[in-house]
Amino acid sequence: MLLPRILTALIGIPVVLAAIHFGGVIYMAFVGAVILLCLYEYGLVLTAGKKPVHMPSLLLFGLLMAVVAILGRAPADMVDLPDNLYPFSVSVVIFGVLFFEVLTPKRSWDRVCNTFTGVFLIPWSLAHLVNLRDIATYGEYLTLFMIITVWVCDTGAYFSGRFLGRHKLNKEVSPKKTWEGAVGGTVLAVGAAVLMRHLFLSTLFSVSEAVWLGLLVAVVGQVSDLAESVIKRSTGVKDSSNLLPGHGGFLDRFDSYLLLAPLFYYVVLYTL
């Protein structure tokens, strides 16, 4: 499994870094494609586990939430948007999902709940990757800071757990993850955060703030990973798909950002 994992990373990492660097429409299209693929894989996971989900509503209203998350923070002089954009959009999603369910011959409240979870969890969260990149002056560097810290944490956790792992983190949810892996990944993530602060963010925050941000990324990213594992284990599915050899699917690869991306964005926005 290690060789496919490395080969996929060698191809995927330059693509992600290039999209972040170019930003704008290119990065927005990249994140939009990731959101669509993650929504689709979420639907596949639930379907494989015989959990009902309304795929058209999932994709349609999921994209709506992603667009709203991005447009909602655009400067007023760029986009003429109503002040009540968020509540209006949430109302549209609630009405739309329930409306389509009422029209479905075999109605299911479980399908409504599963569809709502996908619509609000995946696109709303991942759209904040675009918001973070669009922060004036430092957007590219902050995005690199968060994403590379997650990569280092994942890699550190993988190898620490493989060679040092003895105590299971939560064998019911993720049987291969260990406390040793989690701690090893966190330590390396903090080191990477401090290093990146010295390389391109020294004017924005201090070393101690870099340590706290590194801890935030490592801890929340790993919790987010476990949250996605709860969805998969509840359906008996190991990977969201096999689109990324050695890594599973796009939802497996971007699961760390489901809880992390919005939190990191708002922490940066309101504290730095």
From TrEMBL:
Its EC number is 2.7.7.41. The chain crosses the membrane at residues 28-46, 58-74, 86-104, 111-129, 141-160, 181-200. The keyword Cytoplasm does not apply. This is Phosphatidate cytidylyltransferase. Keywords: Cell membrane, Lipid biosynthesis, Lipid metabolism, Membrane, Nucleotidyltransferase, Phospholipid biosynthesis, Phospholipid metabolism, Transferase, Transmembrane, Transmembrane helix. It is found in: Cell membrane. GO terms for molecular function: phosphatidate cytidylyltransferase activity. It is a multi-pass membrane protein. One of its GO terms (biological process) is CDP-diacylglycerol biosynthetic process. Pathway: Phospholipid metabolism; CDP-diacylglycerol biosynthesis; CDP-diacylglycerol from sn-glycerol 3-phosphate: step 3/3; Lipid metabolism. Belongs to the CDS family. The lineage of its organism: Bacteria, Pseudomonadati, Elusimicrobiota, Elusimicrobia, Elusimicrobiales. The keyword Cell membrane applies. One of its GO terms (cellular component) is plasma membrane. It catalyses: a 1,2-diacyl-sn-glycero-3-phosphate + CTP + H(+) = a CDP-1,2-diacyl-sn-glycerol + diphosphate.
